[in-house]
Design goal:
Layout lengths: L5 E4 L2 H14 L8 H12 L1 H12 L9 H13 L3 E4 L5 E5 L3 E10 L13 E3 L2 E3 L7 H16 L6 E8 L9 H10 L3 E7 L6 E6 L1 E10 L3 E2 L9 H12 L10 E10 L5 E2 L2 E10 L2 H28 L10 E10 L2 E2 L5 H13 L4 E5 L4 H5 L4 E4 L4 E3 L7 E3 L3 H16 L4
The structure holds zinc ion.
Zinc ion binds next to loops.
Length: about 425
């Protein structure tokens, strides 16, 4: 999960909001069924087993676009939990827990990590903590998915809606949410709710999607010798001129909007005029309109930087048809925005679960698998699956299973409440 999370509603207004919805939703019959109590007991008894499974899952590398080994293992686990499991052409592992209706609740956890192949993913223990890249994001979500499937089966749950237990691909970075895009596309006719399990924390619920775009800018030129060809337009100089204009852009505080140049490359040696310069830029906003505006500023800034570099070359007598700079701007990824309605039964179910468990959630806007269903009007949330964690997306990532039970119970109550129970 992208940890650039924006706190968007908090305080007294929120407290009364939660209480209102919790009051309305607390009488949900699904939560009073003895089979639900049994699910909670089974999850309680399985806390240690979930931690051990989380370690095994985490130790199978799942770099971006290379999730297949972990997917094969997830398929084994979900099959062993009694589900009918298939793998789609995108690489998503889909375990079906058939209900009496074709309507679907999708419980999904992403398999991919941000770490490249070759990263040491062995889990180390330090006191009560487990340390490994990806241990929480998304070892916690995947372990919870398996624990949930087992508990529902063992407690002989008969749900109204069909529950799909999904381990998906491509949530992180350049994966560009390809897994969830394929899933929403394939199931949208019957898909009623999506619950994404991402990371550990239980004190928030992501109920709004943060829009983002990732853009690559590439400038090419004729190149040359730093001394004898001096004055020829230089792609790195042009890019630098463009960057200095772009980063001076004023973005609104509300709707919050951000930009980051996260990668820059170019050139081959210190005494050569480079033939190319590239950068990757991350643009984010609470508003699609602001995002579009910001992308426009980026494009204009880079073009102005190139014009400036070309006019400098003309002044030095080095501009001509053979010494033009070429610009290519490509959009690498787009994550749409969207919001869950305040009165959605999904949010009510989560808040009722929180009330029952003595938990309190703040609402957050973030960039997760929930972006895609939310962007097409399918109710979705993203929540942590229990325990504590830190250092996501770094080699120092850690997880502490203390409190895991709360997260598992929160997921179970929310899922069963929206799925409904058959007698
Ligand atoms: Zn994640």
């Amino acid at each position: 999960m992208k940890r650039i999370l924006l706190l968007f509603t908090i305080g007294i207004a929120l407290t009364s909001f939660i209480q209102n919805f919790a009051r309305k939703a607390s009488a949900s019959p699904a939560q009073e069924d003895p089979r639900v109590a049994r699910v909670l007991e089974i999850l309680h008894a399985g806390v240690q087993a979930a931690t051990e499974e989380q370690i095994r899952i985490t130790e199978i590398p799942a770099p971006p676009f290379q999730e297949s080994a972990r997917a094969a293992y997830m398929k084994t686990l979900l099959s062993a939990a009694g589900l009918h499991v298939t793998v789609d052409t995108t690489g998503n592992v889909i375990g079906e827990f058939a209900g009496s209706s074709p309507e679907i609740v999708m419980l999904t956890a992403h398999m991919d990590t941000v770490f490249p192949a070759g990263t040491d993913v062995r889990v180390k223990r330090e006191g009560g903590r487990l340390l490994a890249p990806g241990i929480s994001d998304n070892g916690t979500g995947l372990a919870a998915l398996v624990a949930m499937a087992k508990a529902f089966r063992e407690a002989k749950i008969k749900s109204t809606k069909t529950i799909l237990f999904v381990a998906d691909v491509g949530e992180e970075g350049e994966g560009n949410l390809r897994g969830i895009r394929a899933l929403v596309d394939a199931y949208k006719k019957n898909l009623k709710y999506v619950i994404a399990l991402d990371g550990s924390a239980t004190e928030y619920v992501t109920n709004a999607a943060l829009a983002s775009r990732r853009v690559e800018v590439a400038i090419a030129g004729p190149g040359g010798h730093s001394w004898s060809d001096f004055g020829v337009p230089n792609p790195i100089h042009a890019l630098g001129r463009g960057i200095s204009r772009f980063v001076a852009a004023r973005v609104p505080e509300s709707p919050r909007t951000s930009f980051n140049i996260g990668e820059i490359e170019g050139g081959t040696s210190v005494n050569s005029i480079p033939m190319n310069a590239q950068m990757k830029v991350d643009l984010r906003s609470e508003s699609e309109a602001e995002l579009t505006k910001l992308e426009g500023i980026l494009r204009d800034s880079i073009r102005a930087g190139i014009d400036e570099e070309m006019s400098a070359a003309r002044e030095r007598g080095m501009a001509g048809s053979a010494t033009l700079l070429d610009l290519k701007i490509s959009v690498l990824g787009v994550r749409p925005s969207g919001e869950l309605a305040d009165d959605s039964p999904l949010l009510q179910a989560l808040l009722a679960a929180d009330k029952r468990l003595g938990n309190r959630s703040r609402m957050e806007r973030s960039s997760t698998d929930a972006n895609i269903p939310l962007s097409v009007g399918i109710p979705a949330i993203s929540i942590g699956a229990g325990g504590r964690s830190g250092g996501a997306h770094t080699l120092e990532e850690w997880f502490d299973p203390t409190g895991r039970e709360l997260g598992l119970h929160r997921v179970a109550l929310t899922t069963l409440s929206v799925a409904g129970l058959e007698p």
